[in-house]
Amino acid sequence: MKKGMRFLPLGILVILLVASGNIACKKEAAQTAEGQPAAGTVQANKEYEGPVTVGMGKYLYVPQAQGYDIIVQGQITPSTSELVGKVIKIKGEMKIERPSVVVADAIELKEGEGQYRTIFTRTEEPVLADFFEPKDRDSFQMVNISSINKSEDWEGKAKLKVYGKMQRGAVNTVVIYDNKNKEIGKVILDSVTDYAGYYHDKLRLFDKHYYYLNFKASVDRKERAKNKEMFHADLVFTGLY
What we know:
Elements (H helix, E strand, L loop, with lengths): L2 H4 L3 H24 L8 E10 L2 E3 L2 E3 L7 E3 L15 E9 L5 E12 L2 E7 L19 E2 L16 E9 L4 E6 L5 E10 L1 H9 L6 E10 L2 H7 L1 E11 L2
Parallel strand pairs: 4-6, 8-9, 11-13
Antiparallel strand pairs: 1-5, 2-3, 3-4, 5-6, 6-7, 9-10, 9-12, 10-11, 12-13
């Protein structure tokens, strides 16, 4: 112990030690607030009740949940898509590392006035293989397609972003328009992740979106002229920007 510290009264020494401990705790809390928590740290428990407006795969959207994506990891009956239009009560937790997500711990289905039935209880940790991280947007290059014959607009870009409108059918496509709202061509969607489909339906009030695509291959030039289908891609996300 330093010479100066040796002669301090015991009470003052205790006060100094407590004060230094408080400073350290405040510093640690500040670091956590700056986004440096350990993975899996629980930020808060959440409870919501309201009608399901979008359900796809393991994702649910309930407007009363303030914009959070509800993650349902495991077996649920009825399925998430079958819950659309029904009122549910959700208990879950929000993870600090994904603040836009609430992981459902339990879900109850409303079956009458004051009557609920438990339809889901979580027994495993969430696996979000198709979840699109906001930071990944910057890795997709925005392309403006002016003609079905200008394949240089899209070729050579592994990850690209286009603006248009999804058309669902036997084959899902994204229709690209010019500045006069006339159709230029279509992107063939070989696959659509659950999260991309869920997010598309979540934005159902908007006619056109930005589509984040993994490029696969161009359609043969002759076929392009015949049906306006330009290239194949996998859809991983869609958003308003």
